[in-house]
Amino acid sequence: MPPADPHRLNLVFAAAEAVPYAKTGGLADVVGALPLELAKLGHRVSLILPGYPDTLRIPARRQIAKFSLTVGGARQTGLIEQVKDPADAGGVRVLTIRCDPYFNRPNLYQENGLDYPDNLERFAFFSQGVLQALEHVQAEGMGKVDVLHLHDWQVALCSVYLKHDGHPSLDNLKTLLTIHNIGYQGLFPAAQFDATGLPRSLFAPSALEFYGSMNLLKGGILFSDAVSTVSPTYAKEILTKEFGCGLEGVLGSRPDKIRGIANGIDVTIWNPETDGYLPATYSLADLSGKRICKKALQREMQLPDRDVPLAAAIGRLTSQKGFDLLLEILPELMRLDLQLIILGAGDPVLEEQLQAARKKYRDKLSVHVGFDEGLAHRMEGGADMMIMPSRYEPCGLTQLYSLRYGTVPIVRKTGGLADTVVPYKPSTAASKQATGFHVVDASGDSLLSTMLLALEIFKDRDRWHGLMQTGMQTDVSWTHAAKEYVSLYKEMGRGAGSGKPATAS
Ligand code: ADP
Ligand code: GLC
Asked: Residue 118 contacts by C-beta under 8 Å, 6 or more apart in sequence?
């Protein structure tokens, strides 16, 4: 046998979402795409997900092992299944932890706007299942896993179990926790602590306790070997009171830095030259298809066929995304000669307000409430500009799709939006660096003045085309970010980046 390549890492991703199996937001895009890029770089990569309905429909599933755990007082059985062989999934081995009572449900986390009451049990079970799966696949001859890469609160407990449950075969395993959004921490009442199966001593301020509740993300931050987030600016922001959502002190207590690596996008799925959702494809060399996309989008969204700027906004309707700021300036915007299309789902109050606004401004505003992947692509293809007035944004993917589709992003100057969109100024435009516009403050006034500037520049076809061109030429692929992750994994292997604060034992 040839000697093992010392540069080849053995990496395992664990998350609650990944395209194409389950998605509620950008987390799924990232967990679907980054492993593929790492596999392309020659690393061995596996992905572990809960056994959701979509994975249960995969015919060539293979059972690897079975385990039982007591969770919340009841015995639950988990099946570790391989659902995709690396040869069938871009070099990535996909495993699931199957437990139908927990995961064979219509949604990921909630129904009718209410969280599943057993979410703690579900993800405590899944996190323990991930470690079981690692032991089994290592024993099956997969080789020692170097890094377990965890994503968000749902799997944050993996690091805690690893240190407390005794997994001798995983002794050298390093854990990296990536925080995609610190606004979601996995908070549960103290009374549910026993469902984790962890010793009560861990319900302490130096471990999982957080103002009287249990905080899974906090556990992950304290017990993981390294912590990262999805853009350099957000990595700094979450150390402050304004953005840290109460965890700024915990993050600041880590002696190592919170690494910020900006996301890329899957440029094979999001490619205007091949996108099957678009009525016409296009490229920078020939933008005629984009004009066809615009007309088709106006028709689809029942807006008049007029040659006016067409703006779009896509996203979860939560206060994070700032759709309320857009609603606030709607009366002013609707006095201008433009059209606006909004796609989103979430907060029922915002949904209702948007539907009501649609009725009021039929000729200029169109709204689709719901989750529609195809429409998201057609909006990227057909719109002239994309509005993202987020109050905070760890990275944001929509603006990266927009850059690639020649749809000029108008983004709040925060987090990954600030890092990935170069704002228009006469100087940045002249040096061909500008790709969009920055909304400086999270206020209606700031959004409106930026919109007015964008509309002014839109009238000058050459200047606008310059913005589109620079955006379309920007490298938004995963290539760069994947290499940064590899450096981080290697640093972790050498023991760097693993300065953990003292925790309760
Ligand atoms: P977040 O993860 O905070 O929701 P991102 O910008 O990182 O924000 O990613 C959002 C992803 O979800 C993008 O792929 C976007 O196109 C998609 N998306 C959001 N809302 C909708 C919707 N209503 N319909 C279709 N896709 C949506
Ligand atoms: C989160 C963030 C978003 C980020 C995505 C993927 O959902 O809100 O900004 O792009 O995760 O990392």
From this structure: 72, 102
Q: Cα(499)–Cα(491) distance, rounded to whole angstroms?
A: 12
Are residues 426 and 476 in contact, defined by beta-carbon separation less than 8 angstroms? no
CB 394 less than 6 A from any atom of ligand 1: no
Backbone φ and ψ of 378, nearest 5°: -70, -30
Query: Which atom number of ligand 1 is nearest to the Cα of residue 316?
Result: 20
Task: Measure the CA–CA gap between 341 and 375, rounded to whole angstroms.
Answer: 11
pLDDT per residue rounded down to tens, the chain (505 residues): 455 666 899 999 999 999 999 998 999 999 999 999 999 999 999 999 999 999 999 998 999 999 999 998 889 999 999 999 998 889 999 999 999 999 999 999 999 879 999 999 999 999 999 999 999 988 887 789 999 999 999 999 999 999 998 888 998 999 999 999 999 999 999 999 999 999 999 999 999 999 999 999 999 999 999 999 999 999 999 999 999 999 999 999 998 889 999 999 999 999 999 999 999 999 999 999 999 999 999 999 999 999 999 999 999 999 999 999 999 999 999 999 999 999 999 999 999 999 999 999 999 999 999 999 999 999 999 999 999 999 999 999 999 999 999 999 999 999 999 999 999 999 999 999 999 999 999 999 999 999 999 999 999 999 999 999 999 999 999 999 999 999 999 999 887 544 455 444 4
| Phi, psi (rounded to 5 degrees) for 3 | -65, 150
CA of 254 to the centre of ligand 1 (A): 31
In DSSP notation, 426-487 reads HHHHHTT---BEEE-SSSHHHHHHHHHHHHHHHHSHHHHHHHHHHHHHS--SSHHHHHHHHH
β-pair partners for 436? 423
Instruction: Please tell me the distance from the alpha carbon of residue 13 to that of residue 32, in angstroms, as a whole number.
Output: 10
> Which of 92, 90, 94 is closest to 80 using CA atoms?
94
Nearest alpha carbon, ligand 2 atom 7 = 26
- pTM of the predicted protein model: 0.95
Ligand 2 site, CB within 6 A: 25-27, 30, 180-181, 230, 263, 393-397, 416
- Ligand having the closest approach to the CA of 24: 1
